[in-house]
Design brief:
single chain; 108 residues; mainly beta; 1 helix; 6 strands
């Protein structure tokens, strides 16, 4: 058995809710398991000001999603998120950045 084959076989452990903190998400209409990491930041935006953006990074299996695409819809806990970009792919898993709730910050 090759190392790559062993990694594919072992990936089921990482996406097992009894072993790790995983969530069942809906990616473009299909329910799949994912590892979800939430964050928030202030980014420069198309509005010319800083915007508060909520991000989440998800790790998903390549066997579940062949190619993440910009603006694909992902539903996590009944909340819609959108694919911003693929951060990393190794042929086994993708790490994908999602975003929602982009709002311009108003100066006080």
């Amino acid at each position: 058995m090759s190392f790559a084959t062993q990694l594919i076989n072992d990936s089921s452990v990482f996406f097992n809710a009894d072993e790790f903190s995983t969530a069942t998400i809906t990616y473009s209409g299909t329910s799949i398991d994912a590892i979800v990491d939430y964050c928030e930041s202030l980014d420069d935006s198309m509005y010319g000001a800083k915007s508060k953006v909520r991000y989440a990074n998800i790790e998903i299996k390549v066997s579940d999603v062949a190619r993440p695409t910009y603006r694909d819809i992902v539903i996590i806990d009944s909340v819609s998120w959108y694919v911003k970009k693929t951060l990393k792919g190794d042929g086994i898993n993708w790490i994908v950045q999602l975003y929602r709730d982009e709002r311009p910050q108003v100066a006080a």
